[in-house]
Design goal:
This protein has 324 residues and is of the alpha/beta class. Helix content is 31%, strand content 27%. The protein folds into 2 domains: 3-121 and 269-323, Medium-chain alcohol dehydrogenases, catalytic domain (Quinone Oxidoreductase, Chain A, domain 1, Alpha-Beta Complex), CATH 3.90.180.10; 139-262, NAD(P)-binding Rossmann-like Domain (Rossmann fold, 3-Layer(aba) Sandwich), CATH 3.40.50. It contains 10 helices and 16 strands. Strand 1 and strand 2 form a beta hairpin. 47% of the residues are buried.
C-alpha cells in the first residue's frame, strides 16, 4: 500500500487529495525511496495553483524528502538499498514511497536525522548557492534578506553572519522580528510598516547595499532596487507576493547600473557534481553548528492541505516537515 497527496485540478488547498497509489518499480537509472520525512516549500504552492506548470494532472506535489533506498535500477551505482538519502528539486515528494533519478540523490550523513534532512535540502542548498555563487558574500558586507524568518531566510541569516556579514532582515510581525534576530539578523525592518530604503540608508550611513536577496517578488521589487548601491545585485529567487510585472530595464541604469538575476536551484544543481558539492557545503555548515535548521512546524503528510493553509497564511516560521 502506498499513498500520495495529489492535485487533480489546480486551485486551493482543498484540491489536495490523499490518494491510494501503487508502489512504483524503479527504472534502470532510478532508485525507490521510502520517505521518513518530506519538506514543505512555497514552490509547492506554485505547482498546486498552476503558477508553475506541471507535466500532467493529476500530479503529486512536493520537491524534497529524506528516507531509505529500498531498491535500485540496473544502471545505478551511486546508491544502494539501505542507504540514507535526501534530495531536492524533484517533483513528487508528497508520497510514502517514490522512484527518483538516482543521480538526484545525495547520501545523508549519519549525524543528520531524516527530519532535518528533509527540511534542509531545498532551503539549505538555495541559501548555499545564493551566498556562495549567485553573489559570493564576503566578510564585511552588509546584505538584505527579505522574509528573514522564513525557512530560507533563517538559514541565510545564520550562514551570512557566520561568513562575517552584517545582516538586515525584513519580517511581517514583531514575533518574527525576534526570531530573525535570534538567527543572526543585526537589524530587522517590519515590512509595510517602515520605509525600507530609508532604514537601509540610515543603517549603512548612506552607502546602501551590494546585494539584496528577495523571495517576496512583486511587493518588494522596487524597494529592493532602491536599497542597492551602484553596481549592486538584486537576487530575485521567489514570488511569495506574486510575480514581478514587466518593467523597463532602463530602471537598472537609472538606479546605478544595477544587476538583476532570477536564479533557480535546479540550474545550480543540474550537474551531479554541483549537486554533491552544494549538499556537502550545506552538510558541513550544519554539522559545524554555523547553521541550525529550525523545524518549527510538523504535520502528518495526509494533512498537507492544512500545512499549505498555514504557509500561505504566513503562520509558519523556519522549516516545516510532513511525516508519512
Amino acid at each position: 500500500m502506498n499513498h500520495a497527496i495529489r492535485v487533480h485540478a489546480h486551485g486551493g488547498p482543498e484540491n489536495m487529495v490523499w490518494d491510494d497509489v501503487p508502489v512504483p518499480t524503479p527504472k534502470p537509472d532510478e532508485a525507490l525511496v521510502r520517505h521518513a520525512a518530506v519538506g514543505l516549500n512555497y514552490i509547492d504552492v506554485y505547482f498546486r495553483t498552476g503558477l508553475y506548470k506541471v507535466p500532467q494532472l493529476p500530479v503529486t506535489l512536493g520537491m524534497e524528502g529524506a528516507g531509505i533506498v529500498e531498491a535500485v535500477g540496473t544502471e545505478v551505482t551511486n546508491v544502494k538499498p539501505g542507504d540514507r538519502v535526501a534530495y531536492a528539486m524533484a517533483l513528487g515528494a508528497y508520497t510514502e514511497a517514490r522512484t527518483i533519478k538516482a543521480d538526484r540523490l545525495v547520501k545523508l550523513p549519519e549525524a543528520i536525522d531524516f527530519r532535518t534532512g528533509a527540511a534542509m535540502m531545498l532551503q539549505g542548498m538555495t541559501a548555499q548557492y545564493l551566498l556562495r555563487r549567485t553573489y559570493p558574500v564576503k566578510a564585511g558586507d552588509t546584505i538584505l534578506v527579505h522574509a528573514a524568518a522564513g525557512g530560507v531566510g533563517l538559514i541565510l541569516c545564520q550562514w551570512a553572519k557566520a561568513l562575517g556579514c552584517t545582516v538586515i532582515g525584513t519580517v511581517s510581525t514583531a514575533e518574527k522580528a525576534e526570531l530573525a534576530r535570534e538567527n543572526g539578523a543585526d537589524h530587522v525592518v517590519l515590512a509595510g510598516q517602515e520605509n525600507l530604503p530609508a532604514r537601509v540608508k540610515e543603517i549603512t550611513g548612506g552607502a546602501m547595499l551590494p546585494v539584496v536577496y528577495d523571495s517576496v517578488g512583486r511587493d518588494t521589487f522596487m524597494d529592493s532596487l532602491d536599497c542597492l548601491a551602484p553596481f549592486g545585485t538584486l537576487v530575485c529567487y521567489g514570488n511569495a507576493s506574486g510575480p514581478v510585472p514587466p518593467f523597463d530595464i532602463g530602471i537598472l541604469a537609472a538606479k546605478g547600473s544595477l544587476f538583476l538575476t532570477r536564479p533557480t536551484l535546479a540550474t545550480y544543481t543540474a550537474r551531479h557534481d554541483d549537486l554533491v558539492a552544494t549538499a556537502a557545503d550545506l552538510f558541513a555548515a550544519v554539522q559545524s553548528g554555523a547553521v541550525q535548521i529550525r523545524i518549527n512546524q510538523t504535520f502528518a503528510l495526509k494533512d498537507a492541505a492544512e500545512a499549505h493553509r498555514a504557509l500561505e497564511g504566513r503562520k509558519t516560521t523556519g522549516s516545516t516537515v510532513l511525516i508519512p
